[in-house]
Amino acid sequence: MLTRALIVMLLVLNLGVALWWINRPAPAAPAVEPLPPGVHRLQLVSELPARPEAPPPVAAAVVDRCLRFGPFATAAEAGAAREQLAPRVIQVRPYRDYPGDARSWKVILPAAADIAAAEAAAQRIAAAGFRDWFVIRDGEDARAVALGLYRNEASAQERATALREAGFAVETVPVGAGPVRHWLDVSVPAGFDAADTQRRIETPGQPVDCGALAEPEPVAP
């Protein structure tokens, strides 16, 4: 009898535990303290929103032909035309020439923003081992660095080449060849309307060999 009573009591206890487990209240969510301003909650990688796919790269425009617009009387006029040409062409580069025969050639580093910048550039030239230079403080070439005056273009180009190889964007400029003329060399895509462009900038354009376009305008270091 005692054994039977113990078995019945165990069954009742187990049944009570099972009923409690089934009907137990849901556990309360743990309290989350607010984060300081500017601090974000950590997220799992799987919780992050998907990043949009990057758009495919735009295909590079293909040069169809090249043109030279000009001449322009002043650099300001060339600059205004350049602003109108830029959205219509693949590339636009300034070019300068002189109508007459030069009696000599000078090598200069183009004008800097101010005299202090020109003097700093001159010191870099001196540190690179070059002599015969001076900073021009007034006149047409104010804030430029003069790097030599030569009787023929070949000597001037030899000096300029050595300076360019050292990292200085110098120019060779003819002396006594008359006023400078300004041009704009452009590379254009297929379908470019040259006639409409000429009307807009009020300057004619002529075809040129793309391989003979002007080098990019030098910039003083």
From TrEMBL:
Domain SPOR, first and last residues per copy: 59-138
Protein name listed in UniProt: SPOR domain-containing protein
Region of interest called Disordered, as start-end residue ranges on this chain: 202-221
Spans through the membrane: none
Organismal lineage: Bacteria, Pseudomonadati, Pseudomonadota, Gammaproteobacteria, Lysobacterales
